[in-house]
Write a structure and sequence with these properties.
heterodimer; A: mainly alpha; ABC transporter involved in vitamin B12 uptake, BtuC; globular; B: alpha/beta; Rossmann fold; 6-stranded mixed β-sheet; 10 helices
Amino acid sequence: MNPKRKQTSAMPSQPAESAGKHKRAFRIILITGLPIVVLLLSFSVGRYSVSLPQMADIIRAHLLGLPDPGPASISIVLLHVRIPRIAAALLVGGALAAAGASYQGLFRNPMVSPDILGASAGAGFGAALAMLLSLGPAGIQLLSFLLGMGAVALTYSIGSLVSRRGGAVLSLVLTGIVISTVFSSFTSIIKLAADPDNKLPAITFWLMGGLSLVGLNDLAILAPLVLIGLTPLLLLRWKLNVLSFGEEEAQALGVNTTRIRIVTIICSTLLTATAVSVSGMIGWVGLIVPHLSRMVVGPNYKVLLPISALYGASYLLLVDDIARSALTMEIPLGILTALIGAPFFIVLLITGKRGWE
Amino acid sequence: MLEIENLSCGYGDKPVVKDVSFSVRAGEIMCLLGPNGAGKTTLFKTLLSFLKPLGGTVKINGQSTAGWSRQVLARAVGYVPQAHSAPFPFSVIDVVTMGRTAHLGLFAAPNSKDKSIADEALHSLQIDSLRNRIYTELSGGERQMVLIARALAQQPDILIMDEPTSNLDFGNQIRMLEQIRLLSNRGMTVVMTSHFPDHAFLCSDRAALLRRGLPFLAGSVKEVVTSGNLISAYGIDVEVAEFTAASGRKVKTCVPLMRTDNKSLKNVLNHGSP
């Protein structure tokens, strides 16, 4: 308000500008460099270590149709196990982080994760049910995906009923908590009914999350679904900025909030249910990666959403590298994301800029 | 030009405000007064289509706004809420650029032209220096100015301002009113609410008064802001006085008169509602 005070605050703009340039250069390195390093690292890490030149030779030979250069076991590991797994980690991580970032804007709350409306709980129940019925891998994925979507549809319809007198966002979150609890209880019932010798351990292990079972054929389903979920979110991302100012203000600024909300929920749910149906329950990625991204690039969704997807992909890939190489036994991914994510998040909260108010 | 005809508004099917009619011509400022709970917010929400009118019409430049999309309405009417906090630390220029949303396609993000319109809005309010600051770190008055800049970037015909002077100190209140006058001098139509009837005398062309259980009043400031009307609206003793400033300018002002003896204070507290 006071023009004199503003003058003084604008004074030290010269040095601030060059510091800003350094900061921007640092950011660009952080944004592009980090994922590339993680990606290259991931190809060579594992039970069979593959050196980078070796890998380049194998990939080049297969692309050009030349005879396989290296030991056959190495190229099989690389092409049928490692590359699908790396691709799945990238897709699942990117999907969860993008869904989480979108939900945080939609619900105007940085504590929101992509499973807030019941997608994970529903998908988990679907997978457990499919295993109880001995449906096989395709059946597990399908039922898990359908029940993940179904749980959110249930949350949305009950939430709309609750919010007839206003308060759409809060009604949705509260209903989501209820629906999540109900589906978690269903999962517990299934565990209770499952054969404790083979089915119970399989269900428990699946729920812990992991990418060890992903093959090339899974990617054929995973990749298009993630693309279908991600594209509308990326296209509508500017509107998420406006929505984070609240329902009425967004309306006054010319946004059809009901329409944007339903598109965001459908796409985020598609991403979350797809991710869970392939990889099991992997928590934390959708919560902390958007935070980390917000600290690096700021809250504007124009940049934040693509960066969240990129960082989510790199983060899950990095954690999956640790999961398959730290011990001789594979560590379930869901446990690791929480064990690494939680302390990392606390450190960020203590030392970093918070990224929310 | 904004015309309200026989508007009744409320939640569900229970009207809070009935038979509201007034009009504000282009470039005029209207100040909406009324005690807490009289329905100022409800009326505002209906003007902005957050609530559906229970009856009557809102017309902008002669056309009823019923059935307008959010986007079309937002190009005609800008809303300046009370200064608030945002959940994420957006920069000021990002916040102001969000005012361009009504002019963008569904999938579009603002381009450099929208950015420069946002810069012009900051410049016209002389708050260029806030451009790269973080919105959530600003003072209440600065946030209020940024929200006005956002509404200006929207390039509407009418500006609806919810208590633009709330949370501001004495000096900043008057500076805010001067700023609003400046906007109206440039042709902006302004409808604002205030808790201070003096603000109607200071900067508005028209006034309206909402009173609980009594008919809605609207007209020139002189007609509406009278001692009798204020007494009926707020339930306290008020006199309107005229004062001649050193420059010779005549200024009207409202002087509330407190009852000081115990007996009548007890009466007030027993019968009047807070």
